[in-house]
Amino acid sequence: MTGVVAQWLSPGDTVELQLEAGTAQPTFDDYRLTRLTPEGPVEVWPVHQDTVELVRRSPIDERPIYAYTLRLREATRESDYTAVVDLEQYHYAAEESILAKWVCPEDGAVLAANVRPVCPRCHQPMRFWDLTDATRASRFLLAELVNGQPYEPRFIGYVRVDPPLPAMHRRLPDGTIQRDIRRQVFPADWFEPTYWPEAYYRAWRSAQPEADPEALWARAEEEALKECNTRGARIARVVVHPDYRGEGLGYTLVERALAWVAARRIPEARRTKVIVETVAMMARYNPFFERAGFRYLWDTASGRPVLYRGLTPEAEAAIDRFLEADPAARRHGGRLYRPRYRPVEPLAGPIRFENVTKVYQSWVGLENLPPVLQDVLRSFGVERRLIQKFVLRSLWFRVQPGEVVALVGASGSGKTTILRLIWGQASGWRGWRYQPDGGRITLPRNTRAEAYLPGELEPDFGRLSVLEAVYRRAGDETVAIEVLNAVGLSDAVLFRATVNQLSTGQRERANLAYLLAGGPNLLLIDEFCAHLDPALARRVARKVGELVRRLGITLVVSTHRPEVLETLRPDHTLLVGYGGVARLT
To answer: 219-267, pLDDT tens digit by residue?
Structure first.
């Protein structure tokens, strides 16, 4: 049994031990340990494990497009905690920049680092020792990707569960501080006695100023663990791998954590749990806690929102009574997330291509070649040549408001040209690339277009952080955060990064957020998801398809990726080539 579980057992506890039949030399996997309590038995070992399949469906017809299988289990191994360290670096609430301590098994040297270091003395890899930004009372539920591809991470998220906070004061809308608010709403024993080693440490330090501080702190932690015995729990962290944001995994992790808390009485494994609290600033901008049944009750004295989820009818009734009786709570009704980024005014009519022709021409000469190569080409009779190519020839088609249209075809077939011509009409750009040589392109008067044409028209983040760049376009900080959340960049660590600090997949999402922040009703994207691996391309395509349909945005993209077409589920797929367009779907 690992220390994180064993530390909650105390001398005098009554337990039941069951060994697997026929086991001559039992290991940790060969027995079950149950704690017997006045409120009934609670399983302690083996630790909790659960498997869930998440099916992602088309926003059009609910057809399954891909699925995840996740194994959710409590962290117990060294590799589990190194995964927590890796993921914790992406969480905005991490108070420490260095998140782990490592110890050398040979000489006892200790180092702080975010990746496994090598001992400076003996040059051997060091072993994980402790997390710097968690408590002794913290327990972790890891989400492990089952049957993932070799290029996918093994762990894609975790939930950290702690005992309730030792004290909580409320700030009212007028700034007044209401002390010990929980005692006025819930029975005191739901949240007491909780884990509070600081109280023991301060008292003992005052009485024994000459004592070793580290020894006093270790003793305080042990005493606090022994005394902690609440009927509540607190979700202290929900962390999802950056490449898997926007997939609804936050909601899934919270749901599974609630089941874990209820079944195993996490974290103490003592009294039956009746309520779970969380203090989460991100809940203002992302509703995954509310989707999991949490309700907003108040802000802390420091202004952070507090949400609760009852695990029993008694707890839900207590929440109901507060929301009905408290004047400030009646106004918000338990609802915190109120979206500011809303559907756009759709295009007032279709985009029309009527008898459109586009010819590319260029002169090919010998002037810039070395003399020896000029002589070779002259021997072939090549001196100066005018190259003309019909890219589009008498093209007729329409894109209706709100449609998702995908352009496919060989390189050079005219996909980018169609996007350029639409952008030329929407933006007023008069360059020859953006105007037809014949025919007419018409767009409705209310068109507000944004376009991403790699190498020609790209988001300009400059040296700004992702959040500031999106905020400057949106003009509203709440809308900026909601847009970033919507595309799957839902962490303040990524908000403050520059675009050059993002991975390829994150940069693709940041570009999309930049475009959406402009409030378009027409979105044009060339080479959509071209540089993403297949799994990430599917996730981004699904999210984009879902977003534009929900917001009423007309989307025209070019792509050569079959997995993108499968996941995006365009209303129409147009095959472009030899000057024309054929409708495939």
So the answer is: 999 999 999 999 999 999 999 998 888 888 999 999 999 999 999 999 9
pLDDT tens for residues 499-552?
888 888 888 889 999 999 999 999 999 999 888 888 888 888 888 898 899 999
120 and 63 in a common domain: no
CA distance 395 to 558: 17
Which pair of structure tokens corresponds to residue 149?
A: 């591809």
Q: Measured between alpha carbons, how far is 562 from 62 in angstroms, rounded to an integer? A: 19
> At which of 332, 362, 377 does a domain end?
332
Helices 197-207, 213-227: crossing angle, 10 deg rounding: 140
Write the pLDDT tens digit of every residue in 74-97: 999 999 999 999 888 766 555 557
User: Vertex 104, ends 101 and 107: CA angle to 5°?
Assistant: 135
> Across the strands, what pairs with 385?
364
In a domain, 455, yes or no: yes
Angle subtended at Cα 14 by Cα 13 and Cα 17, rounded to the nearest 5 degrees: 120
Q: Are 440 and 476 in a shared domain? A: yes
Q: Is residue 554 part of a domain?
A: yes
Indicate if 156 and 241 belong to the same structural domain. yes
Tell me the angle at which helices 466-474 and 504-516 cross, rounded to the nearest 10 degrees.
20
Tell whether 366 is covered by a domain: no
**Top-confidence residue, 556 or 131:** 556
Please say whether the beta carbons of 168 and 134 come within 8 A. Answer: no
pTM of the predicted model as reported, rounded to 2 decimal places = 0.86
CA distances from 400 to 215, 407, 430, 520, 525 (A): 72, 15, 25, 15, 17
Per the structure, the complete domain to which residue 113 belongs is given by 96-132
User: Taking the C-alpha atoms of 70, 73, 76 and 82 in order, what is their torsion angle to the nearest 10 degrees?
Assistant: 30
Q: How many structural domains are present in the chain?
A: 4
**27 and 62 belong to one structural domain:** no
Q: Contact, 87 vs 241, CB < 8 A?
A: yes
* Nearest alpha carbon to residue 79 among 125, 32, 31: 125
Average pLDDT, the chain: 91
Q: How many CA atoms lie within 13 A of 535 on its CB side?
A: 13
Residues 265-308: tens digit of each pLDDT: 999 999 999 999 999 998 998 899 999 999 999 999 999 999 99
**Claim to verify: residue 106 and residue 7 sit in the same structural domain:** no
Q: How far is CA 73 from CA 47, 50, 66, 140, 160, in A?
A: 7, 6, 23, 8, 12
Q: CA-CA distance, 585 to 574, in Å (whole number)?
A: 7
Report the SS3 class of residue 543.
Answer: helix
Q: Are residues 426 and 452 in the same domain?
A: yes
pLDDT in tens, 303-335: 999 999 999 999 999 999 999 999 999 999 999
The tally of CA atoms less than 13 A away on the side-chain side of residue 418 is 37
For residues 441-458, give the mean pLDDT: 95
Q: Are 15 and 161 members of one domain?
A: no
Which of 8, 17, 84, 78 lies closest to 46 in space, CA to CA? 17
DSSP state of 432: G
For residues 112 and 168, is the Cβ–Cβ distance under 8 A?
no
